[in-house]
Amino acid sequence: PPQVAVALDLVMVHLVRLISVRFPKPGVGEDADVAVDSVVKSAKARGVGTQVVVARTLVDVGRLDEARDLIEHLAGQARSDQDRGHARYLEGFLAEKAGDPQLALQRYTQALTADPFRVDACVNAVSLLLENNTPAALARIPGLVEQVPAATRSQSPDLLFNHALYLSRSGETGLARANLERILQVTGGDGRLAVLARRGLDELAHKAGGA
User: What distance in Å separates the CA atoms of residue 106 and residue 184, rounded to the nearest whole number?
Assistant: First the structure.
């Protein structure tokens, strides 16, 4: 049955990734190609939510062409807000990988509009706007961040960090410091973002001391 087939195919994809350490590119490993082909076929016989999950898995293992094929298959199908937001996020991710930041930003924004809990879309959109670094781009950041519910925002180290970068550039060092301190609370002081948060706090302290 399709619901069993897609689960088994997803398991096979994950097994190949575990065995190979890094998932093989197309044409490199026969087992990997068979696993990907099978999971795409079985996913297309399932509901939209399952297709989105499979597409995300394919993105995570670097099989972007197959992920794009599955996302295109979703076009025009009825979706919940969550499924639509997830699909738009994946479209944005693929556009960013293809070197089209403008389209990526558009899709991330649409993802956030469909589902305000789509924190990953907000994080990536803010990253693109920070990279752009024009006054017009930076002016869009507060509105995007505020679309994410405050309780969700306060639990996302990635979003807290990107927002802190914006606040620091805007001269709002007190709010930037609060975000960085919140990252240390959420992470327990461990991990990459905790390291970056401490570095950011040191830089803010240095700037304050030199003022």
Answer: 31
